[in-house]
Amino acid sequence: MYKSSLKQTLKDLDTKKISIRELNQDYLNRIKENENLNVFIHFSEDNVLKQIDNLENDNSAKKLKGIPIAIKDLFCTKSMPTTAASKILENFNPTYESFVTQKLLDEGSIFVGKTNLDEFAMGSATNTSFFGNTINPLSKENEPLAPGGSSGGSAAAVAADLCLGATGTDTGGSIRQPASFCGVVGIKPTYGLCSRWGIAAFASSLDQAGIFSHNVEDASILLQSIAGFDQRDSTSAKVDIPNYFENLDDDLNGKTVGIPKEYSIDGTPMEISQIWEDAIKVLEKKGVKIKNISLPHSKYALPTYYIIAPAEASSNLARYDGVKYGFRSDEIDSLDEMYENTRAQGFGREVKRRILIGTYVLSAGYYDAYYLKAQKVRKLIANDFNKAFKECDFIVTPTAPSAAFPLNEKQNDPIKMYLNDVFTVPASLAGLPGISIPFGKDKNNLPLGIQILGKHFDEQQVFNAAVSLERSYE
Amino acid sequence: MNNLIKGEKHDWEMVIGLEIHAQVKSNSKLFSSSSTKFGSLPNSQVSLVDAAMPGMLPVINKYCVEQAVKTGVGLNAKINNYSVFDRKNYFYADLPQGYQISQYKYPIVGEGKVTIDFKDGTSKDIRIVRLHLEQDAGKSLHDQNPSKTYVDLNRSGVALMEIVSEPDIRTPDEAGMYISKIRSILMYLDTCDGNMQEGSLRADVNISVRKPGDEYGTRCEIKNLNSIKFIKQAINYEAKRQIEILESGGSIEQNTMLFNTSTGKTKPMRNKEEAHDYRYFPDPDLLPLEISKEEIGKIKSSIPELPDELKNKFIETYKLSNYDASVLTAEKQTSDYFNETINSDSELKNHAKIVVNWITSELFSLLNKNNQDLNKSPVSPENLGQLIKLISTNEISGKIAKDVLEDMFSSGKTARQIVDEKDLQQVTDQGEIAKVIDEVIAENPKMVEQYLAGKDKLLGFFVGKAMKLTKGKANPKMLNDILKQKLNKKN
């Protein structure tokens, strides 16, 4: 069965080494063989075959023509239902196509299915989905591991070779952490690089679409395809999108990497500290200057995040009320009862928990102490990064505090679960681009991830550092 | 002026503040491109954004922002270069997002004032606290089905300006004058169509009562009143209700009230404890709204003459009274009509007061009687001007002119046509009038005797008789003069 990188596949399609149909048939077969991983919320072979038919009749040149891509089920799609992994949107069929998926369709890619996620992207293990857990493809038999989250389905889809790339969204680490857990590349670009139009919102000031792929080159190709200004999203940025792939440059000689001391957290496993050191050594050998930097407010990032994100979520999820679309409870004797029962039955525990936290921190009498203060701290965190980036070109840290953990661990301990985001959340709050690349293994031979952060809209530097590290590691 | 109302025990003063919701005149909604046309089929003007579909995002409509800035300028208010859209969170079936996008801490327009003019020539300033932009909700239709409620989202997302006054209003009349004045300014600016029946302009009234000189009392808010008549009724009822409670030793609960238009009574909707916690916070889907000084300047320069400017101009140019000028400028169509009338003939400029009277009393009463609007008046400003010219040049008398106007109103003919056809020209020929007077005197020798004996009142009798003989066409002044002359000669 065909298995390769996106870059190579594009060549093979171009040289007719393989046809679009043959290629996608292999991916379809693999998807069917791996149904036990529960990667997809929606998968329809017919739908994929129809897309192949259409492309075969399409003679125009397209950048991603025939490339099988998996879509996180938070992106609204016309040809497939969209659930956000929630019962409340169980049978929701959008009449519109999200900005990001439309761009991928315009480039000629084939959507193989909608991937599983934590309900409304709230989680770090893809275990809060109404449609069940996704299993990390790297799991050993009888020892199922979590794929990370919230974009666990997309990360697993790439790791199991069920597609050549996948979309994800990252609010506090939802691309980078599962990429690390599944041993794939995951990039969250700068806030505003990709339009949020058509992505079911979790926390609007943090949500950002991004890419999973087998390697950095592939990520650079795919990110370019989904980036760009969109007037329908007021927070979308008007910036020129460079050709990341063409501009890839692994020569880092003379660059400076920032190493934030605050990311050395007590209790971080040795293996994590080890790969971090290894990465720094590799960079040093490549002529990169090592600069110790300080991000003093990083320690407040998690609590800040867990105020701002739930606050926005509590309001963003108010529209799921049973009135207009989606699930509506049968037990309704009054309007209030309709709301209460619909939302009680339609949302899962984690979503309810965050709605409650968010409602609380925005309430009269608590707003100043929580939400307003969190916004102030968020500014301080962003300022820390701005200052640091005056002294360095990019920052390197671990992606997550551990390798993939067993499926049901931390299920009942939200705080422990939230700690998964400790390295990814600060950059989210600052709106900075970050990538996770596989780098080293733990004692169980599970992949670990290194995170590279860059300046606003400096995705090119992030890719360059990432490809350099990746090539020296391979 | 005594604004106090008598209670059983002593006098009370009302303290009133208004929150006016004015629909922004704009073809599309505040955050989407759907049409705002009134009266369309339910749910025919609903975009994905208006229906709050997953992943949909608001995008500010720049035209609505300009309209709000224009209005701010018209209210003599401070325009804020920086303002923020917030989410006001609450659940209701016709609020698809589960929140309303509004402005809370940082409104687009700050402090301003408007002036209201009283009949006695005095005027009063009502201060404006702020004006902010917000979305309207949809409509719940409860009367379509006995057991179901339907929702129409056509109005969902339509832009509103909320104009909040200081509690500077002291009587129901002032409240009425204030809302009329705001309406007038908005209509001059063309930022709101002012149609209260269709709900384009509605108000929440905050009212409390106090003994003169005391601190403000506890207030109640009466929601969603859509006519000046109801506003006055509601204030009167609510003030009386509060006074009765206070005079019997009770205290006022800070309630939100609804006004029942058929009973004329207010009743509580919810109390302070049941009040919503709206959990305002800045909408993360929208950037803060920044307007440069240049943009504000550009908008300012596009603003037409406003009622107060026009009023002062009328006072200066035509020597009109403050009250006459304010009546003329209360509605744009009235001042436009006046302008066109007075400019239709250069002579009329010297008879401005007559022009005002003919518009605001004669023409208005005809329009009222026929339930017609000034901008659809069958009598054009040029034709009215012609009629007034006929009066001012003594061609017809004022009394006959009234009949002519009625004829013009129903037939659509010009004053000249009617006067000619019916031969209504005033008789100004001295000889002709004298001849008629001689006849009257000859026919009524007894009356003449009595008159000469000192019964001055009888002059009216002779005038009436003579007028009748001329079919009302005699110039009244000439008739009077000649009559007196002739009678006195008999002496």
Number of domains of chain B: 3
Residues in helix, % of chain B: 25-40%
State the domain count of chain A: 1
Helices of chain A, by number, come to: 15
Distance between the termini of chain B: 53 Å
Q: Into which percentage range does the β-strand content of chain B fall? A: 15-25%
Q: Write down the CATH class of chain A.
A: Alpha Beta
Relevant CATH superfamily of chain A = Amidase signature (AS) domain
Helix count of chain B, per DSSP? 15
Q: Quick one: how many beta strands of chain A?
A: 11
Would you give an account of this structure?
The complex is a heterodimer of chains A (474) and B (491). Chain A is of the alpha/beta class and 474 residues long. Chain A has a single domain, classed as Amidase signature (AS) enzymes (Alpha-Beta Complex), CATH 3.90.1300.10. In chain A, 37% of the residues lie in helices and 13% in strands. The longest helix of chain A is centred in the last third of the chain and has 21 residues. The model of chain A has no long low-confidence stretch (mean pLDDT 96). Chain B has 3 domains: 276 residues, no CATH class; 117 residues, no CATH class; 61 residues, Arc Repressor Mutant, subunit A. Chain B has 15 helices and 16 strands. In chain B, strands 1, 2, 6, 7, 10, 11, 12, 13 and 14 form a 9-stranded mixed sheet that branches. In chain B, strands 5-4-15 form a 3-stranded antiparallel sheet, with no helix packed on it. In chain B, strands 3-16 form a two-stranded antiparallel sheet. In chain B, strand 1 and strand 2 form a beta hairpin.
Blueprint of the fold:
The complex is a heterodimer of chains A (474) and B (491).
Chain A: H1 6-14, H2 20-33, E1 40-42, H3 45-56, E2 68-72, H4 99-106, E3 110-115, H5 152-159, E4 165-170, H6 176-182, E5 185-188, E6 208-213, H7 216-226, E7 256-260, H8 270-285, E8 289-293, H9 301-316, H10 335-346, H11 349-362, H12 368-388, E9 394-398, H13 414-418, H14 425-430, E10 434-441, E11 447-453, H15 459-473
Parallel strand pairs in A: 2-3, 2-4, 7-8, 7-9
Antiparallel strand pairs in A: 1-3, 4-6, 5-6, 5-10, 9-11, 10-11
Helix pairs in contact in A: 2-3, 5-6, 7-15, 9-11, 9-12
Chain B: E1 5-6, E2 11-23, H1 62-74, E3 82-83, E4 86-89, E5 99-102, E6 112-117, E7 123-135, E8 139-141, E9 150-152, E10 159-165, H2 172-189, E11 201-210, E12 220-225, H3 228-247, E13 255-260, E14 265-271, E15 281-282, E16 289-290, H4 293-301, H5 307-318, H6 322-329, H7 332-342, H8 352-369, H9 381-392, H10 398-411, H11 415-421, H12 430-443, H13 445-452, H14 459-469, H15 476-490
Parallel strand pairs in B: 12-13
Antiparallel strand pairs in B: 1-2, 2-10, 2-11, 3-16, 4-5, 4-15, 6-7, 7-10, 8-9, 11-12, 13-14
